[in-house]
Write a structure and sequence with these properties.
The chain is mainly alpha-helical. 80% of the residues lie in helices and 0% in strands. It has helices at 2-25, 27-33, 38-66, 68-85, 92-106, 108-120, 123-155, 159-178, 195-199, 202-231, 237-243, 246-267, 272-286, 299-327, 330-361, 365-385, 388-391.
Amino acid sequence: MRWIVLLLLLTITIINFIDRQTVSVLAPVLCQALHLSNTQYGRIVAAFQFGMMSGEFPMGWIMDRWGVRLGLAGAVLWWSLATGAQSITRSGFQLGLARFWMGTGECGNYSGGMKAIFRLFVPAERTLAIGIFNTGSMVGATVAPPLVIYLARHYGFRTAFLVPASLGLLWIPLWMLVHRDVQKTSLPPSAVTPITALLQDSSTWAIMLCRFFIGPVIQFYWYWIPSYLYQVRHLTLREIGIVGWVPFLLGDLGGIAGGWCAGRLQRKGMSTYSVRRITMYSSAVLCAFSLAVPHLSSTSAAFWAIGIAVMADNFLSANMYGAVTDLFPEHLVGRATGLSGVAGGLSGLLFPLLTGVLVDRVSYAPVFYMVAFMPMVGASLLFAIGTRYRSAPGLHRRNVDPNERAT
């Protein structure tokens, strides 16, 4: 049953990221239709990230207090309505407002998914489960270009917002049916931890700073690569639809590989601390492939460099989210994920604004340089500040019974 639940979590993550990618795939069309500059487009991306940042902690609180059955269903309903509302926008301001609304709900996908995985999977399986769950982001990004462009070319670009919105609404009854045995969570008073206590914990800041630097990297590839291919590599919208999914397919493989490698090393008896250091630092090094992108004359070579960077970043992300389950007990996972999302939302708000200005005034090159080094900074801060990794015996050596089940 837990694998069926994971399949549903994977499915809603795919739908979530089709929702997100619709604007980026249609960016060339939207910028022409709504008369937007790169700077204005950056503000629309930032509006979504501001919504994510604003909704992260409330959504984490809802998942911890109500449980993921009701909490995640409510989040999906909220963001699906916002996705559909984008089809009726007529200006950049209206589109940005709808994106903000959508962001306040979509952040619940991760706090709910992480909490569900924590409850259903043993420690040795969690990172693989998280990797599969997080791979939905790459599958969604892979599916989005051909699907959205097909809908836009045959039925108009506004229809491209309505289809993913409908998919989210269809998912809700399936989730309620399959997850019907999970009732409303009522935590005992001893388990209710105030936010002030969380913010006094070094592990909270370690996770927040890690996501602050790692989060915007994949967001750059999601939201700006179609525009980069259109403006710099001079691909047509049809060509973007044909090949734009390739880097994200590699990202799919990276997410699953990141989870599988971590689980494999844990089953061999390696400490959780060592597993995270090996997987996160090695993948952070590969993210530096993006340094080459602006200097490659071949579009195919640039695609491979982008693909390797995306694959490495998703490998890294699987272990970053796994670190939340390493450092926090079950009753704090939702809120800890939410607080990390606040940090990721803040950087996700600032980075698109900076990207838009740099692209308009300089080029894409400085942005590619930045995303090459940000993953290493984020991983280094996680281990430098997360003192619990070095002080908790269970995180140094844990021999896990394969038959153990999380409670």
